[in-house]
Structures are given as structure tokens and as C-alpha cells.
């Protein structure tokens, strides 16, 4: 009896199958960059006999933040480096072998309680973890608290194009000013549930700031829900081609009467940030 061929959808996620096919259509041993066009998903889906995603960009998004890179692709990585997918212009991408970069909350960091100011109706009808997180950050003015300046939301889910990258989406953009008149642009990346904070998105956010707001100081922020609705905020930067954490604070939003006198005294005793 002939051996039955295993369909890609049975081997794992179809996005992984498509990206694996595209990668090895171009990859040569020792390569550090593998360029491909978005339209290649069409041919790959036909060849593998899998359903073509309605949103081709979602395959790239998923492997950046939700699912692992295909195992065969990972097997070609070198020590200390990993494959990431970056934009390279309109409908053009590249697998790039980059230094390993992880943006993970420090589980041992102290928690700061903040009086909850999110309207209950917003909490009741938020449609996703990401939307709920952005709303909580906005209504509780956590960007102001975290950075120590006055900031206002300029636009959420901003879709735009950046030179040499192509189309990107910024989860939310704030602009702000400090006591000395310095003005800032603050791109916020928000992740909830099992989504991972991504170094690639941070790089894109920084490139967006340089392209669209060159006169403002860019301070990229990442926000993530942790267990028990704990919110981790990171300020990030690029140093030696790696994403580095400048600062990290964990906030828990609670009713005002759940912040004890002892906790307030402890906050007063702490050294002022910044």
C-alpha cells in the first residue's frame, strides 16, 4: 500500500507551511537574509494545496508575535541569532538573521498600585486584550505616569508607510511635552494574551518616528498584560543593533480604597524615578 502523503495542514499551522516553502525557495546555506514578495504566498498555497489566507500579511504578523518560526527554518539559525521577518518596501519582506532579542517582563519586579480610572462600560465592551490594554493605558494616563511628562493620544491603529520598510501599523501614537518644553512622539506597542512583544515592531516604530516626526524625541513604549491584570510597561531603545530595555515598571489598577496607608508610605519613601 503506498504511503499516504501528509498534508502541510496536518504537520502544523498553514502559515508555517507557507513560510517554510517560501524560505527554502530562496535560501542558500550561510545566507543571513532571504528576500521574498508577498505574491509568493499565492504560488506557495497552490503548490502545497492549502487554503490561501484572506489577509496575506497576517501570516507574517502571526509568526512575528503568535506562533513559532517553522522548525526547519529554525534549524538553519546560528548560535545567538534567530530569523525574524522585516518589511523591505511595498509588498516585499525578508527573513533576516538577527541577534536574539527577548522583551519579557521581570517577574521579580515590584508592583505599583494605581487608582483605577477606566470607565466600567469600556471594560465591559472591549473587544480584545489589545484593545482593553490600550484603553486602560489611555484612561489611567499610564504613559504620563511612566515617563513623567504630559502626553495625549494622537491616533490609535495608525497605518502608514515608512521608507525602506513599507506599510506598518502602530498600535497607538502619543505626543507629549515635559516641564522644559521638550516635545516627544511616543509609539505604543500593546500585547495581550499569548502575543509576544516584538523587537521588529519596536524597530518599525522607531523608524516611523524618525520618518514622520524627525523634530520630536522618540520614546518607544511596549505594554503587556501579565497575570491578574498586571500591566508591564517598557521603554525601549536600539543599541548595537539590538533592542534594549531602558526602563520597566509594573502597574496594578485597583479601586482607590485598596491602596493602604502602608503602601502609600512605601511609595513616599522610594527614590524619585528619572
What is the strand and helix layout of this fold?
Blueprint: H1 8-11, H2 14-26, E1 33-37, H3 40-48, H4 56-65, H5 71-74, E2 81-87, E3 92-99, E4 111-115, H6 120-125, H7 129-139, H8 142-147, E5 150-162, E6 166-177, E7 183-191, H9 199-212, E8 217-218, E9 221-225, E10 231-239, E11 242-254, H10 261-269
Parallel strand pairs: 4-11, 7-8, 7-9
Antiparallel strand pairs: 1-3, 2-3, 5-6, 6-7, 9-10, 10-11
Helix pairs in contact: 2-3, 2-4
Principal-axes shape call: elongated
Overall average pLDDT: 87
Number of DSSP helices?
10
The helix-and-strand class reads alpha/beta
The value of Rg in angstroms is 21 Å
Helix content: 25-40%
Report the strand count: 11
Q: Main beta sheet: strand number and arrangement?
A: 8 strands, mixed
What proportion of the residues form beta strands (DSSP E)?
25-35%
Give the termini distance in whole angstroms.
71 Å
Number of domains: 2
Order of helices and strands: HHEHHHEEEHHHEEEHEEEEH
Would you identify the regions where 5 or more consecutive residues have pLDDT less than 50? Answer: 1-12
